[in-house]
Amino acid sequence: MTGTPHDTAAPAVPPTTRPERLVHLLSRWRYAFLALTVLVTICLGVVGVGVFGKLSGGGWTPDDSDSARADSLLREHFRSGSPDLVLLVGAPGSVDEPQAAAAGRRLTERLRHDTRVRHLDSYWPEGDPALVSRDRRTALISLRLRGGEHATTAAAEDIRRETATGAAPLKASAAGRAVAKRDLERQSRHDLVRAELIAAPLVLLILVWIFGNMLSALLALSVGGIAVVGTLALLHALTGFTQVSVFAVNLTTALGFGLAIDYGLFIITRHREELAAGREVRQAVLVSVRTAGRTVFFSALTVTLSMAALLVFPLHFLRSLAYAGMSVAALAGLTAVLVLPVCLLVAGDRVVGRRGPSPSAGVDGGRGLFHRTARTVMRRPVLTVVLVVPVLLCLAIPFQRVEFGLSDDRALGAASPVHRATDVMRDDFGTQATSMANIVLPGLTGTPSRSLDDYARQVSRASHVLRVDTATGSYAGGRQSAPPAAASARFSGHAGGWLSVVTDAEPFSVEGGELVRALRAVPAPGPALVGGDAAALADTRAVVGDRLGSAAAIIVFVIFTLLFLFTGSILVPVKAVLLNLLSLTATFGAIVHVFQDGHLQWLVGDFLVTGTTDTLLPVLMFCIAFGVSMDYEMFLLSRIMEEHRRTGDTGSAVAYGLEQTGRLFTAAALVLAIAMAAMATSPLTPLKLLGVGLTLAVVLDATLVRMLLVPAIMKLAGRANWWCPRSLRRVHARFGVSETEAGEAIPGVPGARGTSPGGRTSGELPPDVTRV
Q1: Where are the beta strands (DSSP E) in 665-749?
Q2: Is residue 41 within 8 Å of residue 48, measured between CB atoms?
Q3: 3-state class of 434 per DSSP?
Q4: Helix H or strand E encompassing 613
Q5: What CA–CA distance (Å, rounded) separates 465 from 519?
């Protein structure tokens, strides 16, 4: 094997850190270890494939919220609430014509006796005017199905397929949350395959271009493959205990390959630099683990803990994405630090391609693009800040008018049959078919009372309320519009009573929020639970607002603490947090401008404009982007600190650090942007928004922030960058990282003390410079 003779003949580098010692131990059984890794990965892949049949399309609302409890009581005790499946049954002429009516009755009876159906409401035979379109050519059959989420979605899909071909001369289409979830899962799986087919070849080409070597590119990709496969297996295991969102798999793939390739790029690049500097294979591997591996460890830990902040939200959607993000980041870091070095030992010097590294280029001669950029910026740091910060603030302005909502059938896209069917319900039926709210009174038992009558009258006076139906009759405008009928008995039972509220307000709108507040403000004759889509949005917004501060505090604390332990500086973590907040706010503003206001659709692909921004996606983007941006921050800081330890000159350290890592984190950002942009090709609006938003966040961070603002601000701060109070200096000395990137003696490596890969020697730091 190429490079093996040098490896065995050279004196071994005594490992000094735990990762080094572990890699040194694994290298003794390198082939057995890699064979075991391949076998375990294959087994995990077999397990992970099973996750696709167990994913959830829900989890957007807290389980213990008023709206969730109201919907649960309605389903379990009153056989009512939001239907799982709505069949829109169309006739060639009127649905009341004898042939159509007979076919409708046959279909209704067949479904009524179906064991999968818990309860149904049909236009036939009673002729309920709320269940027929204005032109009387379409009627509704509303079904509530038995079982949990997976059972209802499977049953809804089967019933949709059966009625599509077995209702002649009638034609049936389907709407409702169960078929929407099934289509969401199917489209998400299809988008995952398409995104991989788009992203994988592009990423491989970029990696080959960066390294000039196919083997190095494949090694970087393998880190991502192991991380993704392991995370899918973990998600499959989690489906036995909790809901796992369909979007968790898409996030796993995009984030996993993006992070893992970042880590692979960093370690392989450092390894190639050490080989180019004359180090032998084993020595180069151990030095790379000690230096780049340390940065990768801190970066993976930062992303993992940033994603953990999502666990403060009691929402299965965000929690399952937290599990996915934490797992894939941790596995990517472990694979990069443990498996990749062993692969490099086996590969020898074959990882050095035609485009070998030139560590000193652009530093000694100042010829590199990133070196020149840093020097130009630092000559005019104030001007740079004055020009760049207003650009980011202008991008952030639209975020001031954000209106939060939740995803509904419109997230599936205009081509979705479920969306088209739901649009027919919105356009051709009365508001009672689509805009409903429910109020459950669990403490109200016995015969209908005067208090219920008074309560229904007050509810009917609320804004946006058209009609209220309950056990004591129907109400509108504060008066009883109809006495109780035979159907009114369904509004009461041993579990209490409930009211059906017909409204003209769209559930996910400003008016829907006003309706929920008005209903909850009406004094009730006992505990009252308001349910329905508008109430679900209100409850989700409330819990996100309550927990958002905690999540943000966790992320800021984690990043500040880890960067302090990484650098020993106070100002550097503060600068990183503030710049991240600035770039993320700019990203959120751009998202509102595009997805809420509907601008630039030609650029991001077609989607349905609802006038709202999903409540949960900015929270998710915040956690992901905050963690990922720390990748580039740590990559850059590691080399800046390395040079600063040698010279004590902040200006030259920043120029050196940007030259050494600029091409690296630009390539990493490009790879991650491609993975996220591939996700944005999905017709599903949440995936498109997430893909576009994270792509923009990565691009802004790698260009305006890392290349311009960081050098400018560090130049302005000067020696203050490295200031640390004496008390915290003792904390860093005890708990921080003591190994330097390359500035201290490396036992067993001739000439290693104070020698950079470019061959420059270090001197003692000036006495007025604090060593970090």
Answers
A1: none
A2: no
A3: coil
A4: strand 613-614
A5: 9
Give me 325's structure tokens: 């993000």
Cα-Cα end-to-end distance for the chain: 41
Q: Does the pLDDT of residue 772 top 60, yes or no? A: no
Residue 42 is predicted with a pLDDT of 94
Helix-strand-coil split of the chain, %, nearest 5: 65, 10, 25
pLDDT digits (tens, 9 = 90+) for 101-148: 999 999 999 999 999 998 888 888 888 787 888 888 999 998 988 887
Give the whole-angstrom CA distance, residue 52 versus residue 232.
9
Residue 203 in contact with residue 211, Cβ under 8 Å? Answer: no
User: Which pTM was predicted?
Assistant: 0.81
- % of the chain beyond a pLDDT of 90: 26
Q: Any idea where the domains of the chain sit in the sequence?
A: 1-47+212-356, 80-182, 380-406+548-737, 431-507
The sign of the dihedral angle between the CA atoms of 188, 193, 197, 199 is: positive
Fold of 1-47+212-356: Multidrug efflux transporter AcrB transmembrane fold (1.20.1640)
Read off the pLDDT of residues 244-259 as tens digits, 9 standing for 90 and up. 888 888 888 888 888 8
3-state secondary structure of 493: strand
Tallying the residues shown for the chain, one arrives at 772
> Does residue 174 contact residue 674 with C-beta atoms inside 8 Å?
no
CATH architecture label of 80-182: 2-Layer Sandwich (3.30)
Domain 380-406+548-737 belongs in CATH node 1.20.120.350? no
Judged by DSSP in three states, 588 sits in helix
**299: number of Cβ within 10 Å:** 29
Which residue shows structure tokens 């996606």?
Answer: 617
481, 467 in Cβ contact below 8 A? yes
Number of C-beta neighbours around residue 527 at 10 A:
13
- 3-state class (DSSP) for residue 486: helix
CA distance 6 to 14: 17
Least Cα distance to 642 among 301, 377, 273, 393 occurs for 273
- Alpha carbon distance 724, 770 (integer Å): 8
* Intrachain domains 1-47+212-356 and 380-406+548-737 with the same fold: yes
Residue 660 has pLDDT above 50, yes or no: yes
Give dist(CA 687, CA 250) in Å, integer: 8
Looking at mean pLDDT, say which of 176-180, 713-717, 756-760 comes out highest: 713-717
CB-based contact 123:100 (threshold 8 Å): no
State how far the Cα of 492 lies from the Cα of 5, in Å rounded to an integer.
Answer: 85
Q: How many CA atoms lie within 13 A of 604 on its CB side?
A: 29
Residues 6 or more apart in contact with residue 626 via CB below 8 angstroms: 306, 555, 559, 580, 584
For tokens 């990749």, the residue is 340
Q: Token pair 């805009």 is at which residue?
A: 435
* Digit-coded pLDDT (tens) for 556-566: 898 898 888 88
Rounded Cα distance between 462 and 465, Å, is 6
* Contact predicate 405/509, CB 8 Å: yes
Closest C-alpha among 501, 440, 317 to residue 66? 440
